[in-house]
Please model this.
Amino acid sequence: MDQDQQKQAVAQAALDYLAPRLERDSIIGVGTGSTANYFIDLLAEIHTEFDGAVASSEATAERLKAHGIPVYDLNSVGPIEFYVDGADETNPHLELIKGGGAALTREKIVAAVAKTFICIADASKQVETLGAFPLPVEVIPMARSHVGREIVRLGGDPVYRDGVTTDNGNIIIDIYNMDLSRPIVAEEQLNQIVGVVTNGLFARRPADLLLLGTDSGVEHIERPPA
Ligand code: 5RP
Model:
């Protein structure tokens, strides 16, 4: 299977996992990106079997609505059982780098609320140690230079993502070459910088289940005990 076929296979696997677990009043958290888009398109097939969705980006909200799936404000719903989203990298602890699509803050919020975070990813996303993929950080625009200097102090190389404004009206700085061997520590250090909204490390709240696309099919990998 090529990368795109793996993305489609994991989207289908997520649907197969969810379908028997949904109730008529279920709200599903839905992520952002090309893998999540495959999932949204499949979700449309069973949209009468659950209530609706909470979206992690404007793009996802539009796609869900186009399929006739009701999209709710997170503040207007109760508990969310499942959040389904892609990733840019995952390590064996199911700690992730996310935010390649600049939706990291809303993704992190929905992941925090959901009881079960199902990550859907093709094999290229699986790594031993996070950090080959540049780590996205959402930053308040006026703090750009300050945050950049603080990132250098932490040992990273900050690069402003030109021409990108997040759904929240902020900018993205991508961090290259930072030591992410202790993801929870790095996540907390970066979030301490004034002007950072959040960063794309999902280590304090990792995925619970990884559906990983491989050449030979989809692997179901549960997060190992801490
Ligand atoms: C968006 C994300 C995506 O989940 C991540 O970039 C993976 O994208 P894709 O499924 O297109 O490979 O974090 O902010």
